[in-house]
């Protein structure tokens, strides 16, 4: 287990919890090295960022509970945090809805949180087709763990989305059917627009032009035979 701590808070977000105003909590540290990741400091240098204790976060949230009733937990990769379940239990006890963003690498954690009724929404990043997972994550990815997480989430009654960031040069039209087969029968899938920027983990991607919206919509059509609802998020 790698050291994990709360390294950032966005007090109000209108986009991180679909249909709900939320506060977003950023956990530092990650076991993937996706080159297009926008949170390079959280992934590579979490200890350089200010740390906030769970108790401080809970106090802040309770003071704002008249305006915000939901929390998005993201990262980094929050399922690596040894105290994640305890933290979420505290949030739920205070009446907050909880959304978890995850890369799916820790299926046992996801299964336990789902079985405990601790999550109201799960967003799992599916990086690409199985054959490209090592390339896309910059690691030796455990594909069986990824597939287990997908299965747990698909079987749950919790609202969820699987999502893929479509990075030119890394993902192309021919990759989509393999993603569809991996997610077959899922209720909700999102194709996300790649966004260049100065905070990307790999500097060579920081000026890369994204696909056009029309290209993303064409790619989405390739997933619709496999998945109930396919959304494009530009």
UniProtKB/TrEMBL annotation:
UniProt keyword list: 4Fe-4S, Iron, Iron-sulfur, Lyase, Metal-binding, S-adenosyl-L-methionine
EC class of the enzyme, as a word: lyase
All residue ranges annotated as the Radical SAM core domain in the record: 15-233
Enzyme Commission number(s): 4.3.99.3
Pfam annotation, one family: Radical_SAM
Domain of life: Bacteria
Required co-factors: [4Fe-4S] cluster
GO MF, any single term: metal ion binding
Classification via PROSITE patterns: PROKAR_LIPOPROTEIN (PS51257), RADICAL_SAM (PS51918)
InterPro entries named in the record: Aldolase_TIM, NrdG2, Organic_radical-activating, rSAM, rSAM_sf
PANTHER family, A to Z: GLYCYL-RADICAL ENZYME ACTIVATING ENZYME YJJW-RELATED, PYRUVATE FORMATE-LYASE-ACTIVATING ENZYME
The protein's name: 7-carboxy-7-deazaguanine synthase
Origin species: Neomoorella thermoacetica (Clostridium thermoaceticum)
Name of encoding gene: queE
